[in-house]
Structure formats: structure tokens, C-alpha cells
Give the backbone structure.
Amino acid sequence: MTDPLDTDDLAPEPVAAEDDCPRCLKPVALCVCDTVVPIENRIGLLILQHPQEQAKELGTARLTALHLTDAVFKIGLSWPSLAAALGRPADPKRWAVLYLGSMRPEDFPPGRELVVLDRKGTPLPEQDSALDEIEGVVVLDGTWSQAKTLWWRNAWMLKGRRIALKPQRPSLYGKLRREPRHEALSTLESSAFLLSRLEGRPEIETELLASFARMLDRYRATQPARPPRADGPRPDRRRPQQRRGRAR
């Protein structure tokens, strides 16, 4: 079993404030950790979070990792290999990265919600066999531009497969968080979609989305009563030497 909150030593997680949950680092009013039941997933999950995404109050990366027994959550910009990011041996050719390119829903083969692509963004001819060979998926957590930064700074991702999603509904965020495209999903939603289809277990998506919905409900319920944070984002409580990190 992998520690779901295994973080990169170059970008340690921020110290939680007294009014924040020590597990998910969210304000106690938004925390849903007490309702999370870990799911034993067969397909591994690696979530790479851009450092600037840490302060997002409605972020879902940590909650996603808490839900899965085989999930690794790292904060940083670059790692020398997939194995280094995971903290264990792994073949990048057997892993897939959630595709960042523009693939319109109408470009998907008929009846496909997941598509494995080649390096040019073209669907592979043998989709079923390509999906069966996937041992794990990498999801990049951040804004569109931050995710692209992670992509270009980690050349080992080019060795893996690329996988695109065709969601059937918009994100549960609704108007709470602006997405670059109407079909864009949160990290939690993308991970739930991927794993539930790859493993043929719809309960994975059901459980993760239920937690996400509870968090959003608590946010909406407490929004009028909770004082706004100064300047919007949550303060960075890491020590100065932790904030600087080291370039690779």
C-alpha cells in the first residue's frame, strides 16, 4: 500500500494552521475527512501538483489521494523519472498521462469515453488492448498553464501513453471555479472518471464524487458566515527555505 500523502522532499507540504484539518489542510468547516472510506484501487494514481496550486481552498488533489490506497501525491515542478516521483520502480511505458491537448468530444471514436493517443494526439487503432496495458495514470494538478509547465519539465512523461476523457457532464464546481473549457473537470473528477472506467468499477466515481459534493455543499453553506481570507489565497506558512526549493 502506498502512502496517499507522500510528498516530494523538494517542496514540503505547508504547515497546517490551527483551524485547518491536518490531513487535507482545508479549513475545518470544509473538511470531509471523517466521511472518507479508502478504496483499494488496482490502477495506480500519481498526482503531481504545481506549487502555486497549494493555496486553492477548493482544490481536490489531497482529497483524491486520501480516497485511494494506491495513490501518490507530490508537490513540485520536476522529477528525474516516474520512479523518482512514485518512490518505487515503475515502467513509464505502462503508465498513461491525462492528455492536455485539445481533443473535441466529436473526435472520439463512437462509444468511447476514454481514448489512448499516440504522441501526435491520434487515437491508437487497438484501444481495448492499449487500455488493458495501463498500470497507472498521472494527473497534473493546477491551472491549464501550470499543468503544461509540469508536462514540459518532466520529459519522462513522453515515454508514457496519453489518455483523453470524454465527460458526460460538466464539473460539479459549477460557477464556484472557472474552468478553461466547459468539459474540463477537477483533479478528483478526472481521477474518478479514469479509474472507474479503467477498472470497470463505477463505485469509485460514485464515492469520490459524493465526497466532492459534500465539500462543495459545506463551502456554500458556510460562505456567508466565514470571513474572507486576506488578499484571497491562503497564507503560505512554510519556512523561507522551504518556499525557495531547488531548481532542477
The chain has a mean pLDDT of 81. The beta strands are 44-49, 71-75, 95-98, 114-117, 136-141, 161-165.
